[in-house]
Write a structure and sequence with these properties.
InterPro entries: YhfG (IPR022541). This is DUF2559 family protein. The chain is about 65% helix and about 0% strand. It is built from two helices and no strands.
Length: about 55
């Protein structure tokens, strides 16, 4: 008997499908995107830079 997904698991699965669908539809339209991969430290630095730039 399969177990039910938690709300957190459902949200993660939905986000993965949404991203895949977006990339697929963009590819059909001839658009390409470079995947951005940041570790936690880099993401934090980027958020701080944006926060300073836009005066938060």
């Amino acid at each position: 008997m399969p177990t039910k997904l938690t709300e957190k698991q459902k949200a993660a699965l939905w986000q993965q499908r949404r991203n895949a669908n977006f990339l697929a539809s963009s590819k059909l339209e001839g658009l390409t995107f470079a995947e951005v991969t940041l570790d936690a430290e880099q993401a934090g630095e980027r958020l701080q830079a944006l926060w300073r730039q836009y005066g938060g």
